[in-house]
């Protein structure tokens, strides 16, 4: 297996956006998610992404530069005249795989309108098609969005204002032909949407409560609630999460876990939870729905007309 670049976490400035806000600014963008997906499947050069995605040169250049600046990709020159660059996944970039896997599974289960059929996930350890199951890393027991599963909430660097991406952060859906994560982007790709989703998972379900948490104009809150109801994520009668909305929990928790591993606020974590069943500080992990074994990146295969893996370097071991 190729060795990933070893990195230290980024220390965030005191009082600024916390790990959750930084994460949403990076991953709340469909182009970024698609670029990382292709990087996990072996893309390294500009031409690789251009061949696989309907993305313009300008947008791809901007996203690659941003991911390199955030430490998710390492830029290496492979040609001098003219200069050409490879963008290799770092340890931080490869660590996004659980988030992408949970998004993939949620979109496949709950979103019928995809421009192309999502491939089947296969667990190499057991050879079976599977869904990722969210479990507690301490006790291996499944964790759901039921209110008695996790206790806790905002930590020392938490709070609504610090947990949303900076207003100047530009994110957009790939849209059009690329819409492989269309509803995920609707939930995470707008600063108000992300805040509303977080509030809903913390039990908020009244308009006035949403407005207080988001500190947004009433028209913005009403628009976001309306959109979430259209998507079937909130119930229209009381604005509580639906089964579809609750099923998005693995995406949220794996994304927060990745963020807090790699972006440290001086004051402490943005979110802190305890798994009620075992009493341990909650850290998410994923298990295979077919064999209950713990999932790791090198054992997740994609079954299409050809077989690829989320870690291309591990193909030599097949």
UniProtKB/TrEMBL annotation:
InterPro entries: HTH_HxlR, WH-like_DNA-bd_sf, WH_DNA-bd_sf
Domain of life: Bacteria
Domain HTH hxlR-type: 16-115, 178-267
Region of interest called Disordered, as start-end residue ranges on this chain: 154-176
Short name of one Pfam family: HxlR
Keywords attached to this entry: DNA-binding, Transcription, Transcription regulation
Any one GO molecular-function label of the UniProt entry: DNA binding
PROSITE patterns membership: HTH_HXLR
Annotated protein name in UniProt: HTH hxlR-type domain-containing protein
Organism annotation: Kutzneria albida DSM 43870
